[in-house]
Write a structure and sequence with these properties.
- The structure holds two protein chains of two kinds.
- By secondary structure, chain A is an alpha+beta fold.
- Chain A folds into two domains: 47-151, Rieske Iron-sulfur Protein (3-layer Sandwich); 166-427, Alpha-Beta Complex (Naphthalene 1,2-dioxygenase Alpha Subunit, Chain A, domain 1).
- Chain A has helices at residues 26-29, 31-40, 166-170, 173-181, 203-210, 216-231, 272-289, 291-299, 345-358, 366-382, 413-427, 432-443; strands at 7-8, 12-15, 20-24, 47-51, 60-66, 69-75, 81-85, 100-102, 105-107, 114-116, 121-123, 147-151, 154-158, 188-199, 241-247, 250-255, 301-306, 310-314, 318-327, 330-340, 387-389, 405-406.
- In chain A, a hairpin with a 2-residue loop joins strand 19 and strand 20.
- Chain A is globular and about 75 Å long.
- The longest helix of chain B has 21 residues, at 10-30.
- Chain B is an alpha+beta fold.
- Chain B has one domain: Nuclear Transport Factor 2, Chain: A (Roll), CATH 3.10.450.50.
- Chain B has helices at 2-7, 10-30, 34-38, 73-83; strands at residues 41-49, 69-71, 96-109, 113-125, 129-143, 146-156.
- Classes of the chains: A alpha+beta, B alpha+beta.
- The complex binds FE2/S2 (inorganic) cluster (FES) and fe (ii) ion.
- Fe (ii) ion (FE2) binds at residues 209, 215, 219-220, 365, 369 of chain A.
Chain lengths: 444, 172
């Protein structure tokens, strides 16, 4: 979608003469808009659920909230992964109240209906009184969420059945997930210690903030000071990289800032034992993937946003972040940290050090992000001002919906592409094709 | 007076002395006298906040799990440097805090070390009130008549799996 004319909707104000791209604050501040986007976007899109390493064994289960629903994830006796609504088929009590565990049979505490981990109802206990045909159509089995799919061991759910597949939805962004798998020949695993915290702000602010190169220096000056301290005189390469629109609202940010990567970029503060291990890791990468790809995996920081609710960071460590939108002005943010399977304990240690010093509610950076999100939300509640600006780097002809690449990582194409997709779904705004037609006509 | 004191079991004397130390520690935090607070630490000291909801919060190591805070002395020093800058936005303007310690139990002591636990309720006031509650594990080392902190481990007690307070931006 290359812009050739001005556009105005409930949510967007695009003015090519002034180079303006603005977003209505009602998208953050209006409870009715939040309800509408739940129906049109959130309950019809692919949302991150969890990683295969969290339920590796037969009869593992975990309970996890996605949007308003509590989802029961199980690995059944056939080792298939299932996602059910965590509610009993009898009269609706929560089936599992523990957050995770391993059980061959799941028994409802209320009247003891008991299910297998594949969701099938095994028994209603010893009581009689039921017609024997009552559930020969399996009407009382646990109800699965309409769609469950995975990419490289990362599982996603969709609460609607009639949507594009996960791979279609991810499109080019799927390759950004695939790249994570190149980190380790033995796979990735979630490290224990899920970080979950509430923020009194709209979830879309988190999508914007996580991909925002512009805020880095002003918001995180005190973190950057710390980073400089920990580099202990080591030269930091210049901040090269780019931001790119990946289609379907997804976007990516890539940079070569030296932040210290357990795979495989050493930091002086990690000490000499880690240095040797990191060098070995680098050799392993280059041996497995070739010089160029090995260097890329070792040194490239990447952050990508999977529209509408998931962010994946591949920097000091691999982190998956998703949000539970609670209200227009409230979310719960979740961060899972990943490491390589069978990683050397020393590498695991530096991985954790890097992750917790920067990110997370007790880190040197995330708390300041939380502050910025909360004061932004407060700002919208004041009212009186209609638009937010995300024009940085915008120009007529920008292919906002798909493919535009900007070499300045502090520009804002990654946000514009999110909002163009948002606007398209919410408003039946200009679709990719429709806009192309208009451009073509203008060219003629 | 000293005769009375001598009649008290050693355990209680230790408790009174560590309580005195803990109250001073808490007061420095509430007053944002962070350099003085840091001076209470042994140079090998650590300050940790364990992950919410982890099974073994008293024993788990920050080398294997993703802590909320896992500071060795150097990072703790840097945390204090950061928290005293206006660019630590989350604490600028500074929140008003009150750290309250209760139920102090001395678990182990000898001539050099004291290990104790206490409950805490800490309130942070900034655009509303947030409350943190849980258990602190202190490992103190004797330093003359006083103590140095070898380890302070904060274990949050929560029924929800998420940190409803949003951040742990000030020192708990
Ligand atoms: S509600 Fe579950 S058995 Fe009755
Ligand atoms: Fe940030």
């Amino acid at each position: 979608m290359a812009w050739s004319e001005n556009y105005r909707s409930r949510f967007l104000d695009v003015d090519l003469d002034k180079g303006r791209f603005r977003v209505s604050r009602t998208a953050f501040s209006d409870p009715a808009v939040f309800q509408e986007e739940k129906e049109k976007i959130l309950y019809r899109s692919w949302l991150y659920l969890g990683h295969e390493s969290e339920f590796p064994n037969r009869n593992d289960f975990l309970v996890r909230q996605v949007l308003d629903a509590e989802i029961l994830v199980t690995r059944d006796s056939q080792l298939r992964v299932n996602a059910f609504y965590n509610t009993c088929g009898h009269r609706g009590a929560l089936l599992c109240r523990e957050r995770a565990g391993n059980k061959a049979l799941l028994t409802c505490p209320y009247h003891a209906w008991t299910y297998r981990t594949d969701g099938s109802l095994l028994t209603r206990g010893k009581v009689g009184g039921y017609c024997k045909e009552m559930d020969d159509d399996r009407a009382y089995d646990l109800k699965p969420v309409p769609q469950l799919a995975q990419r490289g061991g990362f599982y996603f759910v969709n609460f609607s059945a009639d949507t594009p597949t996960l791979d279609e939805h991810l499109g080019k962004a799927g390759e950004w997930i695939d790249t994570l798998l190149e980190h380790s020949a033995e796979g990735l695993e979630v490290i224990s210690g899920l970080q979950e915290y509430q923020i009194r702000a709209n979830y879309k602010l988190m999508c914007e903030n996580s991909m925002d190169g512009y805020h880095l220096v002003p918001t995180h000056g005190s973190y950057l000071d710390y980073q400089r301290h920990m580099l202990k005189g080591m030269e930091v390469p210049s901040l090269g990289g780019h931001v790119i629109a990946l289609g379907n609202g997804h976007s990516g940010l890539q940079s070569n800032l030296a932040v210290g990567r357990p795979i495989a970029q050493w930091m002086p503060s990690w000490g000499e034992p880690a240095r040797t291990l990191i060098e070995q890791k680098k050799e392993e990468l280059v041996g497995r993937l070739g010089q160029e790809r090995g260097e890329f995996i070792a040194n490239t920081n990447r952050i990508f946003c999977l529209f509408p609710l998931t962010l994946i960071l591949d920097s000091q460590s691999i982190q998956v972040r998703t949000m539970v939108p609670i209200a227009h002005d409230r979310m719960i943010s979740r961060i899972w940290l990943f490491g390589a399977v069978n990683e050397d304990p020393e590498i695991r240690r530096v991985r954790l050090e890097g992750a917790l010093s920067f990110l997370g509610p007790g880190g040197f950076a995330t708390p300041d992000d939380v502050e910025m999100l909360e004061i932004s939300q407060r700002g919208y509640a004041i009212g009186g001002v209609e638009w937010n600006d995300i024009s940085k780097g915008f120009h007529a002809g920008e292919d906002t919906a798909d493919g535009e690449l900007d070499q300045h990582i502090d520009n804002e194409i990654q946000m514009r592409t999110y909002w163009v997709e948002y606007d398209r779904i919410m408003n039946d705004g200009p679709s990719h094709d429709a806009q192309n037609v208009r451009v073509t006509e203008a060219a003629l | 007076m000293s005769a009375v004191v001598q009649e008290l079991p050693r355990r209680l004397i230790t408790r009174l002395t560590v309580e005195d130390f803990l109250y001073r520690e808490a007061a420095l935090l509430d007053a944002w006298k962070l350099d003085e607070w840091l001076a209470l630490f042994d140079l090998e000291g650590s300050y940790e906040v364990t992950p919410v909801g982890i099974k073994d919060p008293e024993t788990v190591s920050r080398a294997v799990a993703y802590f909320l805070v896992g500071d060795d002395y150097e990072r703790l020093q840097q945390r204090i440097v950061r928290l005293q800058k206006p660019s630590a936005h989350v604490e600028w303007p500074r929140s008003e805090t009150r750290h309250c310690y209760t139920n102090v139990i001395v678990e182990d002591e000898n001539d050099t070390d004291v290990r104790l636990r206490c409950n805490f309720i800490t309130r942070r006031m900034k655009r509303g009130v947030t409350e943190y509650c849980g258990t602190n594990l202190f490992h103190l080392v004797r330093a003359g008549d006083d103590f140095k902190i070898k380890a302070k481990r904060v274990i949050l007690a929560q029924d929800v799996p998420y940190l409803h307070q949003g951040t742990v931006s000030m020192i708990l």
